[in-house]
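subagent[fold] <- orchestrator: predict structure for attached chain, return tokens only, no commentary.
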Amino acid sequence: MNNQQFSIIFAGMSRIPTIFLESHNLKNLKTGFGQFNYHLIKGIYKAQASDIRCTVYAKDTAPFQKEFGRFFDYKKYYTLHRRAPFRIRKKYDVWHSLNQNVKIEPHHDIPYVLTVHDVNFIDEVSTDLHHESNQRFQAKLDRSHAITYISKYSQESTHKYFKVPDIPEYIIYNGNTLETITLPENHTPELKVEGPFLFSIGEFSARKNFHTLVEMLALVPEYTLVLAGNNGTDYAKTTLQECIKKHGLQDRVICTGKISEFDKQYYLKHCTAFVFPSLREGFGIPPIEAMRFGKPVFMSNNTSLPEVGGTHAFYWDHYDPTYMADIFTKGLETYLKNPDSLSKAYIAHATSFSWATAAKQYIDVYRSLTS
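subagent[fold] -> orchestrator:
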């Protein structure tokens, strides 16, 4: 083959576009961001798209190389990458910032996808748009070539507070992290509950509003309340514990601390209902996980939660304990009149949230920026 023939063949070959997944939150797999990173990457792996080549970015790449093999390229995360002089210099075809609050940015001005989970930092950090966190987020919006949102609420709240550039925007719902139930039949958690109980899981913070469940519990004496998550926070030690003591419910409120995946599935399977009085959610995966087990879900009627729960959940419009107890009691009565049919409807709704679907939609976004 002469040089001219080789040149003709090479010219007809197209280089596969490279996609950098800024996924360093894989180091925190017990958090919402960590779960999003992992399940999206797993969905991309299962999609087996051959027309793009993704790079997974993680502090410890070994477990992901073991799970996904050579389908991905891998880049090791270092804290120094946050600083401008040490930014990653490889010029990828698309950079995907999987979480809106990270400080890691590309060295080059390249096509940039930003996923917005929520803008709760407006309420939790500062409403001053000149504050560092808000300025950093605005800068990410300004450099974006496409923006994805995990809910309509996250899109609407972003437009409410920030200047969104005139670029393509997409709403891509998260999948259900419990598409497949893996709980062994003989699994028993260290903290086993006797009798009927209500269950909730999440960060122990003011935003999760767990203390309102304690106040409600005082009015529904037949139940125990199981709360899972980091119970070493200031909120857990002050507001929550003070509320438990005030109502004398030390024997009926169990704070498990962080739990394993099997423990979580055990509590979801055996609880009477899942309760979620959160004040702000960009999406809200735990209620969907509970529905996957066919459980009735009671949650706040605000932010993204009605969008996620639809007509398959019971909602609290406010947090007066008597009102909450009334909604819970009547809702449970409704469920118990037709538990088999309603449980099937809950499961069907939960399984409609698919990481396979989400991954394919993200891949289409990448393609739109490389075609």
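orchestrator: received. Logging for downstream: The two ends are 31 Å apart (CA to CA). Residues 1-12 have pLDDT under 50 and may be disordered.
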